[in-house]
Amino acid sequence: MTQNPYLWLVPLLPLAGAAINGFIGRGLSKKTISAIALVFCGAAFGMALAVAAGFSSASSPYYCDLARWIRSGSFQVDFSFYVDQLSLVMLLVVTGVGFLIHVYSVGYMWDDDGYYRFMSYLNLFMFFMLTLVLAKNYLVMFIGWEGVGLASYLLIGFWFTKDSAAAAGKKAFIVNRIGDFGFLIALFLMIKHFGSLDFTHVFGAVQPLPQETAGAGLLTAIGLLLMVGAAGKSAQVPLYVWLPDAMEGPTPVSALIHAATMVTAGVYMVARSSAIFDRAPMAMMVVAIIGTVTALFAATIGIAQTDIKKVLAYSTVSQLGYMFMACGVGAFSAGIFHLMTHAFFKGLLFLAAGSVIHGIGGEQDMRRMGGLRLYMPWTFLTMTVATFTIAGFPPFAAYFSKDEILWKAYSSPNGSWVYWLVGVITAFLTSFYMFRLWFLTFFGDYRGGPAAHDAKHDPADAHAMHDKHTHEGHDHGTPHESPWVMLGPLVVLAILSFAGGWIGIGGRFEHFLAPVFQSGLTSELAHQPSGEAAGKGMELLLMLISVAAAVLGFVLAWALYFRRPQLPARIAESLGGLYRTVANKYYIDELYAALFVKPLIDGSTTILWHGVDQGIIDAAVNDSATAARIISDDARHMQSGNLRSYAGWVAAGGAVVIAYMVWMGVTH
Amino acid sequence: MFHLILFLFFGAICVAGAVNLLVQSHPINSALSLIVVMGALAGEYLLLGAEFVAAVQVIVYAGAIMVLFLITIMLLNAGKEERSKGSRVAILLGVPGVVIGGALIGWTILERPNPGAVTIGALKGDPAVIARLLFHDFLLPFEVTSVLILIAIMGAVVLASRPEAVARGARKDG
Amino acid sequence: MVPLSCYLVLSGILFVCGVLGFLIKRNIITIFMSIELMLNGVNLSFVAFAAQWHSLSGQVFVFFVMVVAAAEAAVGLAIIIAVYRTRETLNVDQVNLLKL
What we know:
The structure holds 3 protein chains of 3 kinds. By secondary structure, chain A is mainly α. Helix content of chain A is 69%, strand content 3%. Chain C has one domain (4-94): Helix Hairpins (Orthogonal Bundle). Helices cover 77% and strands 2% of the residues of chain C. The N and C termini of chain C lie far apart (55 Å). Strand 1 (117-118) of chain B pairs antiparallel with strand 1 (2-3) of chain C.
């Protein structure tokens, strides 16, 4: 381990930007605010590049001890940062994509009143995310973990005057907390059994332990609890419900937090804890099952959504499921690879969607879009690249990462053909709903316009209003292209979405990350079946099948949404109840509300509020005041001003004293 | 024997006078009863061999203080007591209290093994000895009481004088 | 030969009568006289003990008590006169401005 004394600057530079903008941003001009935010974020990106340039696998990992923190007996935790290959990948993704989104936000949020707040919160988020990624121990990671939850809450509820936005922010934070509880218990278990939270200590203590038989043991418990935390943060079943609601926030927020970086924190954490998971096959299986189920589940919901951002939100949940599936079968580097490409294309998708929304004056319902490729050529071009990527067409980036995951799901010792099959079906569905989105938005006739803007809003897109905040000054009449400050990041991300996967050709990416996952018992399978001819043939066959699934999705979407646009409505009607269930997200939110939320609120109102707070605590205070008043009311009569009564009291008191003295005298 | 009879005689007069003070409604009657009590007490003191104290009792207490009381009563033209709403506490709490206290004290006194008896003539209340005690051992208290009397005189003069007389006096000095 | 306790009992009786007078009577001057009665009772007990312990200090004490009683009577009666001037009454129940 070598020391890198400047590593602490990477997280703290954005913090400085957040502090400046947060405290004095109200009085600064928008140009200054933008400059501050971009400079500090850019500086973090620059430092990340410098770290990358100076990185060599021989001297990795690098560490940087910033300050002492906890010293309690033999337990100690410090503010320390750490860079190894895994952190480096995450670092570059976070700072790079983050910087691009900062640039984009300058254009998107320019007209908003709370502009300085937004840029401050974005920088704050960068600080926490970088703390999470660069942490050298679980506790500093937890600081970042909680902090990104906080930043997410602040940014989702950015337009806090809207009830739905404030409620969405609360929901995100609370559901995250449920996951964090699991994470905390896992940390406590680690402290108890390993005596430390530092990565090197914990993984060193775990090394000599054998693989646990299914269902037993400490490492399974830790792994499952960590997975609870990851499920909360990365929106997996059953804690995914906050992510679709989080679309209440501005689109750059959705791009940064809920696509590229924050939701990937769970995947990063699971990958980082690979040593623990490798020795707990039961936990790994749970991870894989959760990932697979989530991927399919979210994809089915996505095909019935009408709001462009909701489709992308469910798509995010589904793709995260892919990443967890990869980790669950032991292919950690494949999961991280997909994380990286996902950051590129999902970030691009959200930013382009934001550009579309911006260009048509705040409308988010796809049924009111159409034919926009003529009005917004650059947005159309970049979004096309992203759509082909996510569908998994070669040679785009996600083809390589998704294919890697599917192959590993099939061939790894922990994998099975079930995972693979579900993965292929999900890939088909992904391709279908993404091309559905593509056709609905950019092809056909433009179904929007001033007539459709005002008047009634369907309940489904009542939240289309909020993005209109930033677009008051625009002409609502014709759709228009976005300014170059927004298009620039789109182009960069499009290039990355196209070419970003080539880094994984020939297993180079896997090889790069191998030292991180070396402590696993199920060692990286990169060097394993590639030699076998049968394995190679199987791999080719599976690859062809997944490409075929992608093409099939494209064809179906083309048929339904381009050739015969009336058909989908008729199909939906004929499916009736089934369609409505899927479109209403399987009524999961309503189920949670009835099962958990309502009993809690009722219980709190009856027991805690009326019973304890009003009945016991308030009553204690009020009653003690009443008692004091009653007592003093009675005692008041002693001060009557009447001389004789005073004398009477004195005589009575004197009698008492005399009696006492006599009694003392008699008994001694 | 003789001593006991005399003691009982004077004691009976004391108690009768005290009870009469309680019973009478006109303050003049109460004052005269008190003078009777003081006279009887002077007799008791003589039985105890305290001649000087007995003399002082008659001269100062009965002769000066009680005269002062009588003058005040007559000056203020105090009449019979009229009934007024008193204090219930005084009657309900105070009287039983004092009776119980007194009973306890009495019980304590009588319960002790006999501490001794007093005989006539056993103690000489020699004025010379008293004077020595007064001006020698108790000189400081003696001087302090003289100051006390002085203050009392000044206070009484100020308190009892007419308001404009005080103001005139103050204006004359100031 | 009179036992000491007789004198003490007599002194106690006088004292109790004084307190009872304080509690029962309504005229301020009568109340004052009850106080003098109490003091007399105490004087008797002082002299009795002086006789028993053959120490004349008890009698000197009585002397001082009388002096103080005289001073107190003078001042107290002056106060009563002053109160009578403003209140026109000698009824102690009507001098009750000391209440809260």
